[in-house]
Please model this.
Amino acid sequence: MEQQKEERLEKFERMLAAVESEYQKTLDQMAVLREKGRTKSATYYQLMASKMTYQNMLTMYAVWGLRDALPGEAAKK
Model:
């Protein structure tokens, strides 16, 4: 039973790291498109949808106390 809990926690930690990584990659890709003036492109809109999805996931983790900060808070400090 204890081993199952540890495995589940490890999977959660990997998933959280993956979501954080994808969120940051999405922000970076959006910044590149913004610099090129391509904020009206379909790609930018798709990235915006992905950003919002990842942001909502990270916010839920923070609300439940499973993450220290809300998305974007670390950049403000």
Observations:
- The chain has one domain: 2-71.
- Helices lie at 2-35, 42-63, 73-76.
- The first helix runs from residue 2 to 35.
- The two ends are 40 Å apart (CA to CA).
